[in-house]
């Protein structure tokens, strides 16, 4: 899920950069080309199946469904704000999302997404340390 969130952030960043550069299809395609200069492949080619399982038809169908749903949700969320730019990014359906996920898989990009749970653990550790220091 973190990797899909990272891909969504890349897509939103492309839209924002395109708009900041005057917008339009040509600007968006140029920015997309810059991102795709990195080593990439469709996610189905780059991903590894779970241990003990091959990339059988069921697995590939599951991946395709995930990519289709993810791309549709991203497009629906972003298109009202930048219809031309988002239209370019999704003109091949889920292909860009698939390529980004494949890029992350090939390049082993570490994904760090802020989580509210982190602060919960920090607060708890701080409280426990305070109790330990006070001797209670």
Percent range for helical residues? 55-70%
Strand residues, percent: under 5%
What characteristic shape results from the CA principal axes?
Answer: extended
Please, what is the average pLDDT? 90
Give a verbal description of the structure:
The protein is extended, with a radius of gyration of 20 Å. The chain is 70% helix and 0% strand. Helix 2 (25-35) crosses helix 5 (83-89). It has 136 residues and is mostly helical. The protein has helices at residues 2-20, 25-35, 43-46, 57-78, 83-89, 95-107, 116-134.
Which structural traits does this protein have?
136 residues; 7 helices; extended; mainly alpha; 0% strand
Provide a compact summary of the structure.
The chain has 136 residues and is mainly α.
Topology record:
Layout: H1 2-20, H2 25-35, H3 43-46, H4 57-78, H5 83-89, H6 95-107, H7 116-134
